[in-house]
Amino acid sequence: MAGLGGHLHVLGPSLRCRLRHARRLARITISMILMVLIFITIAGNVVVCLAVGLNRRLRSLTNCFIVSLAITDLLLGLLVLPFSAIYQLSSNWSFGQIFCNIYTSLDVMLCTASILNLFMISLDRYCAVTDPLRYPVLVTPVRVAISLVFIWVISITLSFLSIHLGWNSRNMTINVNYNISKCKVQVNEVYGLVDGLVTFYLPLLIMCITYYRIFKIARDQAKRINHISSWNAATIKEHKATVTLAAVMGAFIVCWFPYFTVFVYRGLRGDEAINEVIEAIVLWLGYANSALNPILYATLNRDFRTAYQQLFRCRSTSYNSHDASLRSTNSQLSRSQSREHKGQEEKPLKLQVWCGTEVTALQGATDR
Question: CATH says 19-311 is which class?
Fold first, then answer.
């Protein structure tokens, strides 16, 4: 027995050292994952905004909602995710009580705005597919602007107004049960049910119905106009856009459904009923949706994929052209101009097309 006790005593420090090393390695791994997620969220949504702003083919009323969604995800990556990562890694909130209220309000507001943007996108796609002739009458700039105002009014009401007035608190007092080292949204029974239904479950049901009808109509139209090439090309393009938006919505469901399920359960049973590890996992799974949207646009939508390529080629070509002009001599310039003149019939001026200048003059080459 004495020998066994001595053996355990020797293994004890070694085991503790291994556990500390494992924790340190896990901490570093989680830190890298969160940093990459935040970077992709910010950079990806900036690219979406630039692509829509610099590409005329993407400047449509539908893409107003996509830009609104990208701005929402961008704000989430700038204003919420860095503090969430620090809080997650340190397990301690060190930014004060007042900023905790602002942080949680921003979190709820941006998540609400995301799903409402997707909800409006689904309604827009439904009008475009089910009644394309009346679409310009149904979807006007004024109605799009009203819809965007509605999205942000509802989001602010369910976040800043509710939290600062204590509507989400269990004891109906503002922030009395907040621990100074903890910072997360309080949830009571009423707030959990109302916010879950208004923010997620009811819009999710409507979106599922609209996309089901869109795909049913798309399938019927594809069968009827199979032998008409012009209509077939236009319809295929429209249906590809619909599939892209449906994939974006599907990613949102996969990412946020676990979180809202836990959120409603917290309201009904209390914070003690949810394990903190599970709560952190479903929260960051929801945050990951903000990084997935730009990737989905580039992967599934040809117009967005082309716009991304044009955006990066414009920057690269402009930089190389400027650098070459600083280093070239008069003879090199003349030879370059002669070569461009000889090859003008074979290659279009890509710099002008990519950067959006003289698009009218090169419209035929661009279309080809």
Answer: mainly alpha
Q: How far is CA 59 from CA 6, 307, 342, in A?
A: 75, 11, 35
> pTM of the prediction?
0.75
Q: Which residues are CB-contacts of 220 (< 8 A; sequence separation ≥ 6)?
A: none
**Domain definitions of the chain by residue range:** 19-311
- d(CA 141, CA 124) in angstroms, rounded, equals 12
List the one residue out of 349, 296, 353 whose CA is nearest residue 57.
Answer: 353
Instruction: Tell me the pLDDT of the chain (368 aa) as tens digits.
Output: 444 444 445 456 677 787 777 888 888 999 999 999 999 999 999 999 999 988 888 888 878 998 999 999 999 999 999 999 999 998 889 898 889 999 999 999 998 998 899 889 889 888 888 888 899 898 999 999 999 999 999 999 999 999 888 888 876 544 444 456 889 888 999 999 999 999 999 988 998 888 888 877 776 766 666 655 555 565 666 666 667 667 777 887 889 899 999 999 998 988 788 888 899 999 999 999 889 988 887 677 778 888 888 888 865 444 444 444 444 444 454 444 545 444 444 444 333 333 333 333 333 333 43
Distances (CA, A) of 266 to 104, 189, 251, 289: 16, 8, 23, 22
